[in-house]
Each structure stands twice: as C-alpha cells, then as structure tokens.
Amino acid sequence: AGDPLYVLLCCWLAAVGAGLLKSEEILEGVARLRISNDIEFEEENFIAMMNEAREKRAKLRSPVPSIPMVVRAEKALEAIYVCCYGRDPLEEEDERLLRIILNAVFPTVGQPQIETIINEKAKRVAEGTDEIKISEPMPLSKEAVQMQMKDLQFLRQGDEKS
Q1: CA 125/CA 118 separation, integer angstroms
Q2: If pLDDT is split at 50, 70 and 90, which confidence band does 72 have?
C-alpha cells in the first residue's frame, strides 16, 4: 500500500527529525502528504522546520535530545501507517515489507524488537484500539504557502505554453 518514496520519507523523518520535530508535526505532515501527494513540498517543509528547530536550539545552547533508536523506529512505523494506510488494516505482506524496511533503516534496534513493534501495531489496528493522535492540521507558515504558490504559478505557466 505504501509508495516507496513516502515510506522512505517517513523513515528519514523518524531517523533524522527525532528530537527536532514533534511527533505531531511529523504525523500532520505525512497526513497532508497522503492527501496532497506533494512530496517535494512536504520534504522542503520538514527541512525548514528542522533547520528552524536547530537554530532555536543553537540560540538557547540546548542540545538535541537523545532519542533511542527503538523510539525512532516506532515513530517511523506510525508515520508510515498514517501516510500510506490511513485507517486500513495491515496485511501479512505489509507486515513482512515493514519488517524489511525498518530492519534496514534501524539495524541497531534488532529484528526481534522490530517484529514486536509491528505485531503490536497490527494488533491494535485490527482491534480498533490504535490511537493515533493527529490534531487539526496546523496552518502552514507564510513562507511555506508562498513556496507552494510559486510552484503552482510555475506549473500553470507550463500548462499555458503547451
């Protein structure tokens, strides 16, 4: 069910963005991606948010918190689920593929732990007890909106020339 680029973006966000981005920010962004299919825009938006967080931390001289890899793997799975599955159940083949990608991206977590994370997620989804907390999407920054409008104008210009 998951577009490979979306899955990789979710893994990258959890691996690199943990400690810089809040879980809610990641989940809101990947939920928007599921609807918009504009991966370039969301990637640029995530990079801008991470850079902003780094700058804030530098000004405050506060280090990026150390997030354990197992937590990063869990966040990646949450993001993949929100982005690629919505509320659909995870099938056996999906679980197999998720094990492969999460073991590849987070090898230090270990196969047994990855297996547990995925099995627990699949069980919660099947039982209807999986509570993904996504608040109302936050309004985008003025810069992000301007960037999206520029892209839209560029695309419209291309259509007019065709």
Answers
A1: 11
A2: very high
Matching residue, tokens 């419209």: 156
Within 13 Å of residue 60, how many CA atoms lie on the same side as its CB? 9
Cβ(106)–Cβ(76) below 8 Å: yes
AA letter at 8: L
CA-CA distance, 91 to 89, in Å (whole number)?
6
d(CA 23, CA 19): 9
CA-based angle 127:131:134, to the nearest 5? 145
Residue of 106, 103, 83, 87 lying closest to 95 (CA atoms): 103
- Rounded to an integer, the average pLDDT of 86-90 is 81
Q: Which tokens in the block code for residue 63?
A: 């280090």
Residues 6+ apart with CB under 8 A from 35: none
Residue 74 C-beta-side C-alpha neighbours within 13 Å: 12
Cα distance between residue 142 and residue 22, in whole Å:
20
Predicted local distance difference test score (pLDDT) of residue 98: 93
**Amino acid symbol at 83:** C
Give the C-alpha distances (Å, rounded to integers) separating 133 from 31, 51, 67, 94, 136.
11, 24, 20, 22, 10
